[in-house]
Design goal:
The chain is an all-alpha fold. The longest helix is centred in the C-terminal third of the chain and has 45 residues. About 85% of the residues lie in helices and about 0% in strands.
Length: about 170
């Protein structure tokens, strides 16, 4: 009976120690997220993505309108306006939680502590700011390149839709 009680006590100690370690990991990862100011960066990236989607729809709408001689079914305009009033991607806690799980998956607590210390240091803060500026600039460049390169595909789509309409199908 004493041995059974010792085993139960030892298991409780292991479980509670594991929970404490997990809480410490999550706290450290949350501190890293705050040091990197990822909440603001994620919000900025979401805004860029939503604006990009709206611009794509706006351009497609303009091409459809031009192709139809300047007038479209009012229902089409209503659909476009409803889409333009929405933001498909929204910032939420799931974004931060998912990033944190992916980021910390292969790192030890000691690694996380060192990363946090770096990002809280003066040079770490400069690194974070430089990275954010580069990431935002790169994202804008990347979306513009995508727009340029996808324009021919969109034009082909419109051409095929026009041919289908003209064929009465």
């Amino acid at each position: 009976m004493i041995m059974k009680n010792l085993i139960v006590i030892a298991l409780i100690g292991l479980i509670s120690g594991g929970v404490h370690a997990q809480d410490e990991r999550e706290k450290t990862i949350q501190q890293i997220i705050e040091a990197l100011d990822y909440s603001r960066q994620f919000k900025s990236q979401i805004e860029q993505a939503n604006n990009y989607s709206k611009e794509e729809v706006r351009q497609l709408y303009q091409k459809m309108k031009t192709d139809s001689g300047g007038t479209l079914n009012p229902k089409v305009e209503d659909i476009v306006n409803r889409y333009m009033s929405k933001n498909p991607m929204q910032y939420n806690d799931e974004i931060i939680s998912t990033w944190g799980k992916l980021f910390g998956k292969d790192l030890s607590q000691d690694d996380l502590n060192k990363i946090l210390a770096f990002h809280q240091s003066s040079v770490g803060k400069k690194f974070t700011l430089a990275s954010e500026r580069a990431n935002n600039g790169f994202a804008a460049w990347f979306l513009e390149q995508h727009r340029i390169k996808s324009e021919s595909a969109i034009n082909e789509f419109i051409k095929e839709m026009r041919e289908l309409r003209e064929a009465g199908q």
